[in-house]
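Render this sequence as a predicted structure.
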Amino acid sequence: MILPLIITEIAKKFSKSGYKCYLVGGSLRDLLLGKTVSDLDIATDAKPEEISVIFPESFYNNDFGTVGIKTESGSIIEATTFRLEGKYSDNRHPDQVKYTKDILEDLARRDFTINALALDLEAISSKSSAKSLEVYFTNIKRMQENVRFEDTLDESKKNLGPGIEGEEKVFLEAKRIPKLGSGDFPSITLYKTSFVGLKKDSEDFIIDRFQGKKDLEAGLIRAVNDPEKRFQEDALRLMRAVRFASELGFKIERKTAEAIKKNASLLGKVSKERIKDELTKIILSNWPAEGIVLLHKLGLLKEILPVLEEGVGIEQNWHHIYSVFSHCVLSLKFCPSSSLEVRLASLLHDVAKPKVKRFGKNSQPTFYFHEVEGEKMARKALQELRFSGEIIDEVGKLVRFHMFNFDHLKHNESTVRRILHRVGGLERMEKLLELRIADRLGSGCHQGEVFKLRKLKYLIEKVSSDPISLKQLKLNGKDLMENLKIKPGPILGDLLEILLAEVVANPSLNKKEKLIFLAREALDEEKKLPGSLSKKQEKAILFLEGKKEEEDGLMQEKYRVRTR
């Protein structure tokens, strides 16, 4: 079936009541591209109160003429009255909305030609017309081309994916195309549609006043009519153009791209929440890195993530063959995860490098503690964009710990347990491994998953059931108070940290009786040598947090003897 049965039933009810209705917007665009259609949007000449009469279970509570029609399955179909929009004083919302009876006037106010198409649902309300529609869609050639990941970075190949019309060079070029080490790169889907197969005398159910079908065939994002007017009406469209390009792998038509660049500063008038929503869709798209580069080229990135733009042209040391900005973008490109948090961390993990950059005695740049400063900067950038606290916290910690040190020649299971304790557990460690692969490949390394990482994964799985946190100890503060006859206070925290360090070093000690014995020993020693408990606690923290290893890593970096 070309359309869900519920849509044709709704269309019949509109038609029976004397109203017209059309399938419009992204739902029709995706239907023509052969993509999965989720939200279905209907445009009609019926006014909201008239729609409510036809569909008594519907609800209406907005200023834009949109009515939610409840279906038997519980889903909601949105029906919006044809409308004209007045002046946009705030470059975001129309000052006035007027209803119209003309679908063409409604389509003329839309953002891009591929979203300004309308499928006549009234015309297919009969069985014969529905059959004709099926034939019509059958003759449309909808192709999904799977492009090799490597080809999207190869300058010898044609310019694939998002970009600007007329630019033939590969949009995001890598000096070295590495290997993942654990399998091939995933292919990337390009959506293509051709209407060439349609017979000239066949009934055309689609209203296409602005050549949207032609732009679908060409893979172009083109503004309806005057692009500058479209963007000055609603500045969020500046980002939506890049988002559609990133999701569909389309180019932005040149005049539209020029208008975006000219009006980029208007994005400052859009709420941070809406910018965040569009950025999230770009990051989670098939072409996230190309989307970020496109935002940069069009002058939009400085309005969204200015901290990322600070890395443009900032050269690095001998570990890297790319500038800070290019490295961050390529790390996002090579990120093997589909998680929003890991992708954001891949993009932002080195944002502090321009700020902490110094030059050593050998004239090589150093970036000491960029992960510490980077966590602060990443958190601030995401807070300004109104990301949720959970996402901000996760990305912040991934940035903070992305420089974790593991040497397969000298580190053992105890080291791995300490790393797991320090980063916050197995789930985050898995994300950090994905971030490390993205970081390596974005640096120009030949392989993302080298033997060292494979050895670490092996040890992680081996110790995965071992205790690494206080909640995994076989006793708690109450047990200590009851068995050792001590009162609540700082001493309980000190003892628990000492016991955790013992258990992380030797998991076999994680038995209640053994832990009470160790705690009693520590208390007895404190009575004989006052201050010894405090020293034990400090030593435990150094052990658990790997402070000495971190200092050693910095020294290795200083003398260029560190291997990554």
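Summary. Confidence is low (pLDDT under 50) at residues 559-564. Residues 426-442 form the longest helix (17 residues).
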